[in-house]
Amino acid sequence: MHPPGADTVLVRHGDLNTKSDTVKRYMVGILAENVEALLADRSIPGEVERRWNRPLVHTTEDAVADATDAVTDAFGVVSASPALTVGTEKATIVDALAEIARERYDGGTFAVDARRANKQVPYDSEELAREGGTAIWEAVEDEFEPEVDLDDPDVTFGVEVRDESAFVYLEKAPGPGGLPLGAQEPVVALVSGGIDSPVAAYEMMKRGSPIVPAYVDLGDYGGVDHVARAMDTVRTLSEYAPNFDMQVYEIPGGEAVDLLVAEMEQGRMLSLRRFFYRAAETLAERVDAHGIVTGESVGQKSSQTVQNLGVTSRVTDLPIHRPLLTSDKQDIVAQAREIGTYTQSTINAGCNRVTPDRVETNARLEPLLEHEPDDLLERAEEAARNAELVEP
Ligand SMILES: Nc1ncnc2c1ncn2[C@@H]1O[C@H](COP(=O)(O)OP(=O)(O)OP(=O)(O)O)[C@@H](O)[C@H]1O
Prior knowledge:
By secondary structure, the protein is an alpha/beta fold. It folds into 2 domains: about 10-175, 2-Layer Sandwich (VC0802-like), CATH 3.30.2130; about 185-390, 3-Layer(aba) Sandwich (Rossmann fold). About 40% of the residues lie in helices and about 15% in strands. The chain has 13 helices and 15 strands. The strands form 2 sheets. Strands 1, 2, 3, 4, 5, 6, 7, 8 and 9 form a 9-stranded mixed sheet that branches. It has a 6-stranded mixed sheet with strand order 14-13-10-11-12-15, sandwiched between helices. The two termini are about 35 Å apart. The structure holds adenosine-5'-triphosphate. Adenosine-5'-triphosphate binds near residues 190, 214, 296 and 301.
């Protein structure tokens, strides 16, 4: 809900406040660019003003709700508020609060949350909140009995007084938090057609790392549905990052999978993971990325026991980031739904079909290497060199 006449979006960031002024200015610049790109991609009118340490979006009242949604999709944003802009005089702000109350407050409890970024004004936050609260009360008391609740109000009237203007708002829409995308170097994201890997990729994006998506084509064991699901999820992720290239590297892995199925029983799934990681490392060198991200989580599958993760991870020198390492499946599913990458489909494709009858849960490296095809890793490197870019 926004105040009548609201044509500005306040953008709040969190982790940037822990940075030095120089780093903060740089990162706020990236944040502003990303917000501009999100607005443009969704054809929402809006200009980003970077003058303050926290950016503002100037838009129209008709577009202010969509602009707020776009802002809260930007990584690094903690919350955003569609706000009415008024002068910084106390009487002006108090009048605005009364007017907004008449239009938007129709029952329940309320509170005023007033803050001053500009300490030069001749009143303090408490005084403003108190006088604003009285004005709100008087504005509605003929209609219903208002009630103040400072701890858990139904309606919060927010006021932020800055240098030249004050902003009045009724809503703090939550954003993802984290850091602006591009504040970190890129990583290769291994995305399968599953639920977990897109969520893991999103988590890295949330900490500022652009992703280079990579999908390993499993040949007959993958199938069109599997590829389509992976591409769909990358397309969804790219909507959070319209100013970043999110084409997918499709790594040909069909022959390697056939070989593993023909030659290996015990440890087959682990060697397949080693193939993935080595291919991802080679691709990372090719595209100048600095890590690998996967959707693995401890104990979720037999290949994801701590022993097996320990053994398979040793195939690369690059770090393998696993943001979901300690997450429960139901939380991952909930997050996938929230970010829009959840897929209802439970088709039996991909790694599930490569799984042998007896799975290894307690692997050791030496016996695994004895059984693994000698040229598996060379095949992985070659496959990554031959990977082609496809539009998701
Ligand atoms: N075909 C593939 N292409 C690229 N990466 C893959 C592929 N299959 C699996 N991965 C990567 O390896 C990780 C572990 O794979 P695993 O088979 O255990 O998971 P999954 O159920 O297929 O997929 P997800 O983890 O996304 O639900 C995945 O999280 C993903 O990062």
